[in-house]
């Protein structure tokens, strides 16, 4: 199955709610993070939950285990069903997010390699592969891997087996959904939907890649 996940990085609660309503029939989950939460407050999660879609908290948690656990507790007490953390912080910090997610019946995804051009400065040379190993060891639910580098995401797939891959970078960052859809479990799309003249139609277009 390939889901469409809307990255709702708008800067007002009003825009967020309006775009969520228009796109809801064509998407499978909503991801929100710092842009929207810093602008509208974490309560926006409760309002968005009216659409009945899973909500993923993208705070890319990267802290010591205790702080990561506190952040994850806050996230799950606000109705999110998933959390995203960084992997480079190490096993104990990733485990804190995974365990807190699972205690709440939620999921934890670990950033394994990012989609922007500068990601190769750090994640290449074996780091992404090591993080993929950590994902398996910590029983995390899946990884974040780039739609902008399908060959890398395919390689990471061989390391994580059937765990889920959520993949950002299509549309505005140049990734081609047709090249990535069959490799991953979810395509994350932001600007190509929320900046479109008609976000509902844009989301409907991407929904062609749903399986
Ligand atoms: O480029 P857009 O507008 O389609 O937005 C992409 C979204 O995915 C945006 O929220 C960005 O922060 C996020 N993202 C990446 O673009 N690249 C990454 O490598 C990782 C993420 C991300 O969401 O990480 C956690 C899922």
From TrEMBL:
Lyase is among the record's keywords: yes
Gene for this chain: pyrF
Phylogenetic placement of the source organism: Archaea, Methanobacteriati, Methanobacteriota, Stenosarchaea group, Methanomicrobia
Organism listed in the record: Methanospirillum purgamenti
The protein's Enzyme Commission number: 4.1.1.23
Protein name as it appears in the record: Orotidine 5'-phosphate decarboxylase
A GO cellular component entry from the record: cytosol
SUPFAM superfamilies on file: Ribulose-phoshate binding barrel
Pathway: Pyrimidine metabolism; UMP biosynthesis via de novo pathway; UMP from orotate: step 2/2
Domain of life per record: Archaea
């Amino acid at each position: 199955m390939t889901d469409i996940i809307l990255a709702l990085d708008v800067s007002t609660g009003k825009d967020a709610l309006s775009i969520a309503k228009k796109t809801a029939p064509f998407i499978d989950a909503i991801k929100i993070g710092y842009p929207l939460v810093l602008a509208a407050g974490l309560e926006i999660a409760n309002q968005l939950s009216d659409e009945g879609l899973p909500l993923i908290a993208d705070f890319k948690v990267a802290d010591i285990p205790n702080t990561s656990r506190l952040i994850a507790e806050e996230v799950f007490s606000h109705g999110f069903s998933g959390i995203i953390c960084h992997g480079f912080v190490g096993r104990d910090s990733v485990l804190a997010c995974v365990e807190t997610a699972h205690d709440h019946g939620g999921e934890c995804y670990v950033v394994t390699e990012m989609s922007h051009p500068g990601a190769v400065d750090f994640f290449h040379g074996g780091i992404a592969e090591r993080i993929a190993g950590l994902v398996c060891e910590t029983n995390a639910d899946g990884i974040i891997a780039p739609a902008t580098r399908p060959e890398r995401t395919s390689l990471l797939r061989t390391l994580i087996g059937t765990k889920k891959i959520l993949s950002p970078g299509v549309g505005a960052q140049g990734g081609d959904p047709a090249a990535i859809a069959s490799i991953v479990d979810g395509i994350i799309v932001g600007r190509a939907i929320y900046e479109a003249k008609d976000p509902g139609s844009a989301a409907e277009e991407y929904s062609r890649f749903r399986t």
